[in-house]
Amino acid sequence: MRVVAPTAETIAEAAALLRQGQLVAFPTETVYGLGADATNERAVAAIFEAKGRPHFNPLISHVLDAAAARRFVEWNDTAEKLAARFWPGPLTMVLPRCKGSAISLLATAGLDTVAIRAPSHPVAQALIRAAGLPIAGPSANRSGAVSPTRAEHVIESLGDRVPLVLDGGPCLVGVESTVLDVSGPKPVLLRPGGATREAIEAAVGPIGISHALPSGDAARSSPGQLASHYAPARPVRLNATDVGADEGLLAFGPNPPAGAMLTYNLSPSGNLAEAAANLFAQMRALDRPGIARIAVMPIPETGLGLAINDRLRRAAADDGLHRRG
Ligand code: AMP
Ligand code: MG
């Protein structure tokens, strides 16, 4: 694997690899993506292989803007409003596949809908533009593990399974995109993420919620709903107001309890955007030998706190199936 700084040359090289059906890891504002040509079945199959995804879960296709999206999905008024407000940015819309859509059937796992988003990260945009393709891009990590927010995380998780990594530094948002099903009469939240429910409702009115399903049921409309999707190797204890000497503490706010073996603070000032940006890197840093458990302080359930708590609950709900050391 090669890790390179994004320049006009390396982006052109990455685009050429994508056009040849190869994989490239690239930064987005949410997390690092494992990119492939979304119109090439074999390239998309290589994503599933590199990630070790147990099932062919549908992938998000990344495009430059609403005009590009309309070539692949059936657009509607709600999508138009949401794109105007949130694109480019951390909102993925699930829309009906349009007639003649070139998106690979494997990328959508055979569904008649397509998950699509326009990322705001300049390197992601430059790569999409240079490749001239929609880019299928799940998080650039082995299936079930914590998502990568830095190039080092991609290297740790995927190693030589990806030939080229564009290192754009740490991801600014730090949690995955919000996935919103916009294919029906009322939008439904499938996965909370970087675009907040409050902001979405301010743009299009009340939305339905379907992500808070109990764990263990395989019949999900969105595999990101799997309970153990974001699991560190060590157990996670939520809503910790005290901490043991054998625990690593993931703190939030100005007054963390003392006595942990190791403490990281998501945001000493209690800022949820800062906490989201630090979440996965700090979870990884605490997920190390010698630490019995990761204790997590309570996080407010508003704004980005919804996505943060969703990922933390999944980390805590891990059923062992995806746990790796
Ligand atoms: P990831 O690629 O790891 O960020 O995950 C993509 C998320 O989008 C997962 O939660 C998928 O289940 C969801 N997703 C992708 N395509 C669809 C679709 N057509 N319908 C519903 N959810 C989807
Ligand atoms: Mg993922």
Domain module tally: 2
Shape: globular
Q: Which cofactors or ions or other ligands sit in this model?
A: adenosine monophosphate, magnesium ion
| Unreliable stretches covering 5 or more consecutive residues | 213-221, 320-325
| CATH fold description of the largest domain | DHBP synthase
CATH architecture of the largest domain: Alpha-Beta Complex
Going across the major beta sheet, what is the strand order?
1-8-2-3-7-4-6-5-9-10-11
- Total helices: the number is 9
Measured as a percent range, the helix fraction is 25-40%
Any idea what the radius of gyration is? 19 Å
CATH superfamily of the largest domain: DHBP synthase
CATH C-level class of the largest domain: Alpha Beta
The percent range for strand residues is: 15-25%
State the separation between the terminal residues, measured CA to CA.
22 Å
User: How many DSSP-defined strands?
Assistant: 15
Secondary-structure element order, N to C: EHEEHEHHEEHEHEEEHEEEEHEH
Major sheet summary line: 11 strands, mixed
Rounded mean pLDDT score? 92
Given helix and strand content, the structural type is alpha/beta
Record keyword descriptors for this entry.
DHBP synthase; globular; Rossmann fold; 9 helices; alpha/beta; binds magnesium ion; 325 residues; single chain; 15 strands; 4-stranded parallel β-sheet; 17% strand; binds adenosine monophosphate; 11-stranded mixed β-sheet; disordered C terminus
